[in-house]
Amino acid sequence: MKLAMFQAMSKTVNIAEFKDRFSELLAVVEQGGEVIVCRRNVPLARVEPIRKLAPRKAQRSVVGCMKGTVRIHGDLTEPCIPDGDWEMLK
Predict the structure, then answer these.
(1) What is the Cα gyration radius of the chain?
(2) Are 39 and 14 in contact (CB under 8 A)?
(3) Does the global pTM surpass 0.70?
(4) Among 2, 6, 11, 55, which Cα is nearest to 37's?
(5) Which has the closest alpha carbon to 47: 24, 66, 65, 63?
């Protein structure tokens, strides 16, 4: 019975009809149906309800999750270009 009810709530419309009946078609989507929008009877888009996801368990904070995975070699404040090459760049 549910399958028949879902098929009855599925609509296929062309763009002009979609624009004219937008609020009515969104009501169909809100009730769990779907609307397939066509351009010259060729399917273009599907409008369907957003499925609510189950609440997720509390997870560790993302901040600091990569702590200890990076090594820094050398001095970060020293220039990458040797002092002698600076004159060449002028």
Answers:
(1) 29
(2) yes
(3) no
(4) 11
(5) 24
Query: Can you tell me the distance from the alpha carbon of 84 to that of 88, in angstroms, rounded to the nearest whole number?
Result: 8
- Name which of 12, 52, 16, 15 is nearest 33 in CA terms: 12
Do the bridges between strand 10-14 and strand 34-39 make them parallel or antiparallel, or are there none, so unpaired? Answer: parallel
SS3 12: strand
Per residue in 6-42, pLDDT (tens digit) is 444 789 999 999 999 999 999 999 999 999 999 999 9
Helices (H) and strands (E) in the chain, counts: 4, 3
Domains and CATH numbers, the chain: 2-47 (3.40.1620)
